[in-house]
Design goal:
single chain; alpha/beta; Rossmann fold; 3-stranded mixed beta sheet; branched-chain amino acid catabolism; 3-hydroxyisobutyrate dehydrogenase activity
């Protein structure tokens, strides 16, 4: 199978790297050509998609997008230089971005009209950097069970937990609600660490206590300890993405 992959950012780069390791051929593209070249240099069985025409996309059996938001996904697929027009009839499109479920439903109807099934398949993870080891969690939304069956080997190559959530947009709805719960814990933890230090508590010890108590969450177990207290801030979840995700949740 040959898979198209568009978007090699913090998450997309590592998710895509799982595919050639499990036998898939990849055609890749990113807004940053140097990042695309770096990926191809580091991963066998992968090639760069040409910028000038859509010939590379004519041979893919599925196309995956991992982009900042649903508006960019739609433009990449159906815009002036959209990839969708080059795909063979029936090619499965998989959007792993954190997109609005309402935008996804609209995109699904547009793609369905030209014979392309869409799966919204956003990700989350049980531990920091699980996406690098093929242990991601997928939430799937799709109107076609047959399309999910066809794409399942892709999800199994990149993920450990795969949950069909329902019709088109359901995966993105679950993703934004997951992020809502996660962000709530991040805010509570940050407030608690500031208040605790004012009282003379050591933040590292505070996190030790939380991790063996009812306050344990993803941030106490991984990102705040590994990236916050160390001041590395390399978890990959930027403040701008957090705000974008919460705007999506507000609309659900």
């Amino acid at each position: 199978k040959t898979i198209g992959f568009v978007g090699l950012g913090n998450a997309g780069y590592h998710l895509a790297a799982n595919l050639p390791r499990t036998g898939f051929n990849l055609v890749v593209r990113d807004a940053d050509p140097s990042r695309t070249k770096k990926f191809v240099d580091e991963n066998q069985k992968s090639t760069m998609a040409g910028e000038s025409n859509g010939d590379a996309w004519k041979e893919v059996d599925a196309l995956i997008t991992m982009l900042p938001n649903g508006e960019i996904v739609r433009d990449v697929l159906l815009g002036e230089a959209g990839i969708a027009r080059h795909l063979r009839l029936g090619t499965v499109v998989v959007d792993m971005s954190s997109s609005s479920p309402f935008d996804t439903r609209s995109l699904n109807e547009e793609l369905k009209a030209i014979g392309l099934p869409l799966i919204d398949a956003p990700i989350t993870q049980t531990h920091l950097h699980a996406i690098r080891t093929g242990d991601a969690t997928f939430m799937l939304g799709c109107d076609s069970p047959e399309a999910i069956d066809r794409a399942m080997p892709l999800f199994e190559a990149m993920g450990k937990y795969i949950f069909p959530m329902g019709s088109s947009g359901s995966g993105h709805a679950m993703k934004t609600l997951n992020n809502y719960v996660s962000v709530g814990s991040i805010i509570a933890l940050c407030d608690s660490l500031v208040a605790g230090q004012k009282f003379g508590l050591d933040p590292a010890t505070m996190i030790d206590v939380l991790n063996v108590g009812t306050g344990r969450n993803f941030s106490t177990a991984y990102s705040m300890r590994d990236e916050g207290l160390t001041r590395r801030y390399q978890s990959g979840y930027q403040l701008a993405l957090l705000i974008k995700d919460m705007k999506i949740t507000r609309d659900v």
